[in-house]
């Protein structure tokens, strides 16, 4: 029996432009560190300092390949004792095709980390649990807000540098 129906999402014919696309070619742990210097009985809820950084670099092969890295760091303290330090750099290799030049940076710094985050979050939870603590479940991150804040800081810094040189 054959299916003679048309596909659900037919490709537009004769437009001459392909739709922008992003492919995840691979994802991996680049660096992982967990230190447990002050493990002992914890009487109170620890303070946790969380850091998030996103970076993207073009791959040497070109062809629209980029390595996007998501760096997560967590430091848990109770009173004056450091309970644990955890740092993870989780990266992915992405290929962008037919993406307009002005959309490359937002795609690399918003959409790519959004795809990597659930995997990095799981690794942080597992490594803290394996270190003898309750799993550290990081709240979802708004990468759009993070990108806009970074963009605004860069604009303010360039404005300060421009006025300071005059």
From TrEMBL:
<keyword id="KW-0963">Cytoplasm</keyword>
<dbReference type="GO" id="GO:0015031">
    <property type="term" value="P:protein transport"/>
</dbReference>
<dbReference type="Pfam" id="PF02556">
    <property type="entry name" value="SecB"/>
</dbReference>
<feature type="region of interest" description="Disordered">
    <location>
        <begin position="1"/>
        <end position="21"/>
    </location>
</feature>
<keyword id="KW-0653">Protein transport</keyword>
<dbReference type="GO" id="GO:0051262">
    <property type="term" value="P:protein tetramerization"/>
</dbReference>
<feature type="compositionally biased region" description="Polar residues">
    <location>
        <begin position="1"/>
        <end position="18"/>
    </location>
</feature>
<dbReference type="GO" id="GO:0051082">
    <property type="term" value="F:unfolded protein binding"/>
</dbReference>
<keyword id="KW-0813">Transport</keyword>
<keyword id="KW-0811">Translocation</keyword>
<keyword id="KW-0143">Chaperone</keyword>
<comment type="similarity">
    <text>Belongs to the SecB family.</text>
</comment>
<protein>
    <recommendedName>
        <fullName>Protein-export protein SecB</fullName>
    </recommendedName>
</protein>
<comment type="subunit">
    <text>Homotetramer, a dimer of dimers. One homotetramer interacts with 1 SecA dimer.</text>
</comment>
<comment type="function">
    <text>One of the proteins required for the normal export of preproteins out of the cell cytoplasm. It is a molecular chaperone that binds to a subset of precursor proteins, maintaining them in a translocation-competent state. It also specifically binds to its receptor SecA.</text>
</comment>
<dbReference type="InterPro" id="IPR035958">
    <property type="entry name" value="SecB-like_sf"/>
</dbReference>
<dbReference type="GO" id="GO:0006457">
    <property type="term" value="P:protein folding"/>
</dbReference>
<dbReference type="InterPro" id="IPR003708">
    <property type="entry name" value="SecB"/>
</dbReference>
<dbReference type="GO" id="GO:0005737">
    <property type="term" value="C:cytoplasm"/>
</dbReference>
């Amino acid at each position: 029996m054959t299916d003679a129906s048309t596909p659900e999402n037919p490709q537009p014919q004769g437009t001459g432009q392909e739709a922008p696309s992003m492919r995840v070619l691979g994802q991996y742990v680049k660096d992982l560190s967990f230190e447990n210097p002050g493990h002992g009985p914890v009487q109170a809820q620890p303070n946790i300092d969380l850091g998030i950084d996103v970076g993207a670099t073009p791959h040497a092969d070109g062809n629209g390949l980029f390595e996007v890295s998501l760096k997560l760091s967590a430091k848990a303290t109770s009173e004056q004792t450091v309970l644990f330090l955890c740092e993870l750099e989780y990266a992915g290799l992405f290929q962008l095709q037919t993406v307009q030049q002005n959309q490359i940076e937002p795609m690399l710094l918003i959409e790519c980390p959004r795809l990597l985050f659930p995997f990095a979050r799981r690794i942080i939870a597992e490594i803290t649990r394996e270190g003898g603590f309750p799993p550290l479940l990081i709240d979802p991150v708004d990468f759009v807000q993070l990108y806009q804040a970074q963009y605004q800081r860069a604009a303010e810094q360039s404005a300060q540098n421009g006025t300071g040189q005059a």
